[in-house]
Amino acid sequence: SLMITDECINCDVCEPECPNGAISQGDEIYVIDHNLCTECVGHYDVPQCIEVCPVDCILTGIEETKDQLQEKYELITGQA
Ligand code: SF4
Ligand code: SF4
Q: Could you tell which of 8, 24, 38, 43 is best to mutate to test the pocket of ligand 1, judged by most ligand atoms within 8 Å of the CB?
């Protein structure tokens, strides 16, 4: 899953773009829920939040394989 660094300017552009509802406003900056972020696997070829973030503050948080991300996608969408 991805993570948001403290470079985040709280612009709220990424939140509506996430197909898994994994992004929300945290205490200081926006945050990504590890359990919901599939790095957009299952929905898009590239992470949508990275595509739209104006300050490039979204990086890999916890490394996962494509298979693990696909598994998470199936769990979230009830296809497992
Ligand atoms: Fe949501 Fe995709 Fe960004 Fe993960 S990579 S937080 S699933 S938009
Ligand atoms: Fe923060 Fe980037 Fe999301 Fe804007 S798009 S809220 S700067 S992570």
A: 38
- 38 CA → ligand 1 middle, Å: 6
List of residues 6+ apart from 38 with CB closer than 8 A? 1, 20, 69, 70, 72, 73, 76
Q: Could you report the per-residue pLDDT of 21-46, keeping only the tens digit for each?
A: 999 999 999 999 999 999 999 999 99
Query: CATH code for 2-76?
Result: 3.30.70.20
What are the residue boundaries of the structural domains of the chain, listed by start?
A: 2-76
Q: What is the ipTM of this complex?
A: 0.98
**Tokens found for residue 50:** 């990275």
